[in-house]
Design brief:
- The complex is a heterodimer of chains A (223) and B (112).
- By secondary structure, chain A is mostly helical.
- Chain A has two domains: 58 residues, no CATH class; 160 residues, no CATH class.
- Chain A contains eleven helices and no strands.
- In chain A, α1 crosses α2 and α6 packs across α11.
- The termini of chain A are far apart.
- Chain B is mainly α.
- Chain B has two domains: 67 residues, no CATH class; 44 residues.
- Chain B is 79% helix and 0% strand.
- The longest helix of chain B is centred in the last third of the chain and has 24 residues.
- Chain B is extended.
Amino acid sequence: MALVATVLVYLLATRLYRRWPGPLTNPVGLTVLALILLLKGVGYPLERYQTETWPLVALLKPAVVALGWVAWRERARLAGRLLPFGLGLFAGSAASLVLTPLLARALGAGPELQKALALKSVTSAVTVDLAPRLGVNAELAVPLIIAAGILGAALGPWWLDRLGVRDPLARGTALGTASHGIGTARVAEEGALALAAAGLAMAAAGLVTALLAPPVLRLLGLG
Amino acid sequence: MNLALGLTLLLGFYGLGEGLARLLPGLPLSGSLWGMVLLYLALASGLVREELVAGAARLVLRGLGLYFVPVGVGALAFEALLREQALAVGAALLLGTLITLAAAAGGARWRS
């Protein structure tokens, strides 16, 4: 029942997105929002909802493995530009991992939220498996990651214009690193090189963050 | 036929990844992330030809957005926390995203 409802709402949201494509009509964001309102509206217990929808979440594991294929394919398209790509990926992932929790702390958010925000630039699919290994709550992190993806995809192109970033490789790397899948979808309109950089960044940012997170979280007193 | 083989390969790499994650608990990579790395290495080394996995990979990635919806809905359990800290979280997300974009774009434009 919950599983069927989730798939139906998602299909509906996908149709909405096709009619009005853009970060604000992102089907994942819309579906999560609609289901939260629906569950609250009919008083459906969250635990029961999650038990009934676990098969969907189980599919994430082979999907994350398949990102290895995406990374391999896009890497071939970045021939000769791998060094700047790698530097951008590393700088963006590190800045996100260190500065987002510190910003949240300065603004008065507690340690649990700071930790969840540290994974802001890891794609949700990777987060589900990765978060528990880092002592982060995936259910708190994933909605924040979706919000970060929508924000970055909505404002990213404007922000990069303002910063004078015109190079498609730099734009793709930035949007893929900061906004994962939603940013990658947005970058599709900026050409093949930008799209390849974004796709590779989406897959690789999770890996870079996973490797950097344990020492960084410890240094921030969140480990 | 090819699709079944591709799906089997994806699951096989996931299984290998899960095994590695258990063998190397000191490294923070999860089983699926290890699987991703192993598939990448297998393709890059020519051990696995792309045609074998491309179809299956496309298939499992088609519904990627749908698969983590239930996890996102789990935010409901944190409603009170998120409401209470909405301003801090929103501002950290917005500023953090702008900083991440600037840092990544800056890094990618660096020339030696």
